[in-house]
Amino acid sequence: MKRLFLSFAILCCALTASAQEMTRVGFVVEDGKATLSRPQSSVEVSVRVEKRNFVPGEFARYAQKYLGERASLAGRVETAIVEAKVGEMLSASNVEPMLIPAVTSKSLPAFRVDSRSMTTEQQAAAAAEMIFSLRKHRIDLITGEAGENVFGAGLDAALKEIARMEKECLEMFYGHESVSHTDHHFTLVPQAEQQNYMLARYREGVGIVAVDDLSGEALVLNITPSAVDTSDIVPATEKDKVRQEYLLPASCLCRLLCGTRPLVEASLPIYQYGERVVVAAPAR
Predict the structure, then answer these.
(1) Tens of pLDDT, residues 226-263
(2) Distance CA 77, CA 54 (A)
(3) Cα dihedral angle (70, 76, 77, 83), rounded to 10 degrees?
(4) Pairwise CA distance, residues 138 & 50, whole Å
(5) Could you tell me if 47 and 84 are in contact, meaning their C-beta atoms sit under 8 angstroms apart?
(6) How far apart are CA 174 and CA 82, in angstroms?
(7) Which pairs from 226-233 meet CB under 8 Å and 24+ separation?
(8) What's the rounded mean pLDDT across residues 38-58?
(9) Hey, where are the domains in the chain?
(10) pLDDT tens digits, 87-139
(11) Nearest Cα to Cα of residue 262 among 253, 271, 272, 273
């Protein structure tokens, strides 16, 4: 009997010293209820993709002529994986999507002050004149050359409105960009005989795509388990009448890769790669 208690005590001390978890395996009776214990671990993977969509301005080709600086004539979409986690979920994105609507026919541009018909270049010239006029008005307000009775909250409101109108006109030359973030979550249950798991694919300009979309780079979780140290545990023998079976999880290095590029890694205890031990236990 002393040997039974000693073996069980050694098991508990060894697990405590190595900070390992342990779980009973098989039928477990607690509070008069029998349950079948089959411990297994799951791994959570989260990926955040940032998408930037640039739309050129409708007067882009006239920017050099009227504003003295070239503007991009081509639209583009850029994506990037900006954050990834293994073993926990991403927190809510603290960057809200910034969507700047393009100027449409339903919105009267700041430079239009009458209903006369204008060609596209004439509209661009009028928009450029409006930009310079707004900048002059801003300086006059700040220096007191205009609106000498405008001050305090009134001055602040006037400057904000000038800034809004100037921004609207500038976007018609230099375009606008929208930025959004999308979170993707994956949950997998590892298998003891497998170490690489393809979660999805990543394609530049699109983001996360399906596994069968071969145009993207593979998003793979690699799990490398370490050997479980059971050297301090005294196993049960045939002479021990009361035995208990435990499963010790393996400490696993989990690395998330996009193609060959590492994104993030974490060390997690995973039961599927663990070690079973049978020890003598004190009879009740």
Answers:
(1) 998 877 777 767 776 777 888 889 999 999 999 999 99
(2) 6
(3) -30
(4) 35
(5) yes
(6) 26
(7) 226/250, 226/251, 226/252, 226/253, 228/20, 228/274, 228/275, 229/18, 230/275, 230/277, 232/10, 232/13, 232/14, 232/17, 232/18, 233/10, 233/11, 233/14, 233/277, 233/279
(8) 93
(9) 2-42+189-280, 48-179
(10) 866 665 444 444 444 444 345 677 776 667 889 999 999 999 999 999 998 88
(11) 253
Q: What's the pTM value of the predicted model, to 2 decimals?
A: 0.71
Q: Which tokens in the block code for residue 208? A: 């996360």
Which among 275, 266, 277 has a CA at the least distance from the CA of 192? Answer: 275
| Measured CA distances, 265 to 95, 143, 215, 252, 257 (Å) | 24, 56, 25, 10, 9
Q: How confident is the model at residue 272 (pLDDT cuts 50, 70, 90)?
A: very high
**Residue found under tokens 């890769």:** 257
